[in-house]
Amino acid sequence: MQQDYGTLYVVATPIGNLRDISLRALDILASVDCIAAEHIDLTRHLLSHHGIHTSLMTLHQHNEHLVAEKIANLLASNQNIALVTDAGTPCISDPGAMLIHLLRSSGHRVVPIPGPNAAICALSASGIRSNSFFFYGFLPVKSGERKRCLTSLTTFPPCTLIFYEAPHRIVECIKDMIVIFGTHRQITLARELTKVFETFHTDNLENTLQWLLADENQQKGEFVLLLPPVFEENKATLSQDVRHTVQVLMNEFPLKQAVQLAVSITGEKKKNLYAYALSIKSD
């Protein structure tokens, strides 16, 4: 007879407000044999709020490999396990990917229980008009490495760039963004999402830096940084003749070919013409 195996449930939990959790997530957390949590005390607080008393084990970036083997053995004995992180969806800038890769490679069942995510939460309330976004997560801690990563993103096709940042690095991060993207690049800063001091601030990078420096309270909490694409900036800097050339070529050729021809005809930078072409298509 074929042996039955348990299931690992990847459960999203609130990023602040403890009521931001699905009914299904509560059912799973109450019914599994054990919950693997990044920090047990934080998860126990959430469980206690909802009257759940499931046993807990710790799984974080330093012990994930060892705990993964333990969880695989529990699943093999037909126990069900839930994986949670401190806040939001596991494996999104948090531990868990190694565990899930191991379990899937071994044929175990892994089921996502969707819910809160700080990046999507911030984007949904930002007012940024963009059909595409690139989620980077946390930038490197050291300024030099952070600048290199930001520089690599300057060649991306226009899209909203989304980062996470810790309170003790927010000021230095914005300073590095000014160096790479310039003072006038727009940014939306979302702080303490779903919590008492939830804040959305939209301005250019230079003014945002001054806003942070003027009030240390605005430097507290977890941050989501959103840099919208630069469609409008490129429209403003290209001459009318160049824009007309791009528009005419796009009526006759696919976007990529139209941009290549426009570069040859006008001598403008490919990055600017590509951004403008995408903005036309988006509009």
Describe the 3D structure.
- It is a single chain.
- This protein is of the alpha/beta class.
- The protein has three domains: about 5-115, Tetrapyrrole methylase, N-terminal domain (Cobalt-precorrin-4 Transmethylase, domain 1); about 120-230, Tetrapyrrole methylase, C-terminal domain (Methyltransferase, Cobalt-precorrin-4 Transmethylase, Domain 2, 2-Layer Sandwich), CATH 3.30.950.10; about 235-280.
- The protein is built from twelve helices and ten strands.
- It has helices at about 25-30, 40-50, 65-75, 95-105, 120-125, 145-150, 170-180, 205-215, 230-235, 240-250, 255-265, 270-280, and strands at about 5-10, 35, 55-60, 80-85, 110-115, 135-140, 160-165, 185-190, 200-205, 225.
- The strands form two sheets. Strands 3-2-4-1-5 form a five-stranded parallel beta sheet, sandwiched between helices.
- Strand 2, helix 2 and strand 3 (about 55-60) form a beta-alpha-beta unit.
- Helix 6 crosses helix 7 (about 170-180), helix 10 (about 240-250) crosses helix 12 (about 270-280) and helix 11 (about 255-265) crosses helix 12.
- The protein is elongated and about 70 Å long.
- The model is unreliable at about 230-235 (pLDDT under 50).
